[in-house]
Amino acid sequence: MTKIHAAITAVNGYVPDYVLTNKELETMVDTNDEWITSRTGIKERRILKGEGLATSDMAVHAVEGLLQKRGISAEEIELIIFCTTTPDMPFPATANIISDKLGAKNAWGFDLEAACSGFLYGLTVGATLIESRRYKKVVIVGADKMSAIVDYSDRTTCILFGDGAGAVLLEPNYQGYGILDSILRSDGSGRQYLNMKAGGSVKPASAESVAAGLIITHHDCAAFACVEDDVDIRGAGDITA
Description:
CATH topology: Peroxisomal Thiolase, Chain A, domain 1
Largest sheet: 5 strands, mixed
CATH class: Alpha Beta
Strand content: 25-35%
Order of helices and strands: EEHHEHEHEHEHEEEHEE
């Protein structure tokens, strides 16, 4: 039997219109363009503005462009894996909200929450399902509205994060192109260095936890290597970028 690989056959991304520059951040926290650029290389980040706009809205934009590039309809999607740290809400799964907004009536989906590693994890899961021969069109979406959980008075975090979405379409390939292998490892002992201290079952969201600044991103990754990931991808000639 011919071996199947999961090939990335289309790629698309979306970022909001609003640009938050280093110069603007200088007016918000004790920092400056030179300090940010020399340490991170970041000059600007995009922020999603607008009442009621959520992570799913950016994801929908990304997937709509993806489908247009590939020339297929939303109804041809069989599975959506949505990788995020900022779902629209705890439930239902934001993947299903995306499906509804897209009109992907034949797809099932789920959310995968693994922070910075989420997209690689989702890509590996999606590739495995393609290789199983059960699915032929799997969409992996990575999106976050980090501005919703960033403390803009903390210069160690607010300079790093922005909002945006990216999506890829996985399809079977029989010529040896695509995702060949993956090695994924993580170490949960580093959880104290990168976390949100409240909002989960350990410390549920409350007026007190919000007032204490616990429903925001806290990190000290310089002290700990939080995750190690390696994915081997061989390029295919039919990738649409």
